[in-house]
Design a protein that fits this description.
The protein is mainly β. It has 2 domains: 69 residues, Peroxisomal Thiolase, Chain A, domain 1 (3-Layer(aba) Sandwich), CATH 3.40.47.10; 33 residues, no CATH class. 8% of the residues lie in helices and 23% in strands. The strands form 3 sheets. The chain has a two-stranded antiparallel sheet with strand order 1-2. The protein has a two-stranded antiparallel sheet with strand order 3-4. Strands 5-6 form a two-stranded antiparallel sheet. The two termini are 32 Å apart.
Length: 104
């Protein structure tokens, strides 16, 4: 939820409870930063915001999700399935079809 709010408002909040950065982590020459204060998250040109979320469980169950900001290009890219009581009824499916009808 936090990353969705960050994308919505374009601001990365300060990292809480982070007083000093581990000097062993080579952040200086990397694209990664620790947010010491709330900073504006600016998009690079027309590229959408993208974020990775990882969750590491105690029992070894790990989950990784990549999220990309949705930018409406064409309403024909949306496929709305009418509610007919099936498993997929009423869901919206977004596709990456480049040619033709994306709902096929």
């Amino acid at each position: 939820m936090k990353v969705l709010l960050i994308m919505k408002y374009g601001q990365i909040p300060k990292t809480l409870h982070q007083e000093e950065i581990n000097p062993v982590i080579p952040l200086k020459n990397s694209p990664f930063r620790i947010a010491k204060e709330t900073v504006k998250w600016e998009s690079r040109g027309q590229a959408p915001f993208r974020a990775g979320i990882s969750s590491f469980g105690f029992g070894g169950a790990n989950a990784h999700v990549l999220i990309e900001e949705y930018k409406e290009k064409d309403k024909n890219d949306l496929c709305i399935f009418p509610g007919n009581g099936t498993e997929n009824s009423g869901r919206i499916r977004m596709t990456g079809a480049e040619n033709g009808d994306p709902c096929k």
